[in-house]
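User: Can you predict the 3D structure for this chain?
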Amino acid sequence: MNEQLEQALDQIAEEKGISRQDLVSMIEASLAAAFRKDYGEKNQNIVVEFDPENMATKVFDVKTVVETETEAEEDPQKFITLEAAQEISAKGGSSSLRGSEDPSGSRTTGGKKSHKHKVGDEIRTEITPKTGTSYGRIAAQTAKQVIIQKLREAERNVQFSDFKAKERTLQNGVVQRVEGDTVLVDLGKAAGVLFPSEQIRGEKYTIGQRIKVLILHVEPATKGPKITLSRSHPDMVRKLFELEVPEIFNGSVEIKALAREAGSRSKIAVFSNQDGIDPIGSCVGQKGSRVQTVMAELGGEKIDIIEFSDDQVKFIANALSPAKILNVQLNDQAKEAKVGVLEDQLSLAIGKAGQNVRLAARLTGWKIDINGEKLGGEETVAETSEASKEAVAVEEVKADETKE
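Assistant: Here is the predicted structure, written as structure tokens:
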């Protein structure tokens, strides 16, 4: 192989992440465009075969055999009728057959071998220019433009595939630009968009700031992949704990459920798959080091870590932490839970603006009513049912969106 060509192919393949075979295909497409510019005819479908070993090229007019004249007229560059294909074969021209060729279907006409063509066969007629033929300036410019365009398309496809595989993962990024409430984040090979709805409430972003973001969605677009980022999605908390807690990363501790109000508070339910491992202690870390690291990344967002239980009564009681629960009565049919707490624990169980019970409802999937009880046995019913119902409904919608 030509040494300069080999070095150029290796360099481009490494920089762009494109295979050498794809680069050779781009060269063939560019040579076909150049040939079409200087020597091609109207109804020719030009295909070039390029051999990088000896820099040799072969040019073909490629046609697919169709049955009727009407089908051939739809795209005369690519199609040829069965009758016309048989004529080319009978003349003994320099054509070759690809596709559904029947080895026993060959015949001899005028001392030259031809084929009984079938619908769907590919006829390749060689039209390689004579040795020493060169391309003009316009044709060469056309070839250059085709290669540049093909390289850009291939690079976009590689970027899309790479980032599509990283959906719902954490990535480090640098704030590139702030346009109103929308933030553009540089992810290295591409830029992602952090929309206002996916930002943590009250968080400010400055150009050059390094942040962790969750790749939420990746969609193909004409100018490269469209990457939607998030810092408010519940999976942001999940992935941060996977980074900070080795027990979660290796699977010995599992996050069973998670509810979040970004920028304010989150609740996570954890469970140990291995005896002797404390799931809550693993997530908190020595002197709270692990959970504090996660909270710092989320701008000081509070995180409640509770133990998951298959016993729904215990799980609901844990979910309402830090309030102390007296009793839990379940209505399995309506999936509603009535929870009794002492009056001095009532405001703690409900939380500021109903946040604690709302997050508990999302975490458990149960509608929760909280009843304040006096030591004498009297009850004070707290109006928390509507808040918990709304919380469960919102969580179900989010779960459906995640599945989609």
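The chain has four domains: 3-156, 168-230, 233-308, 321-404. The first strand starts at residue 46 and ends at 51.
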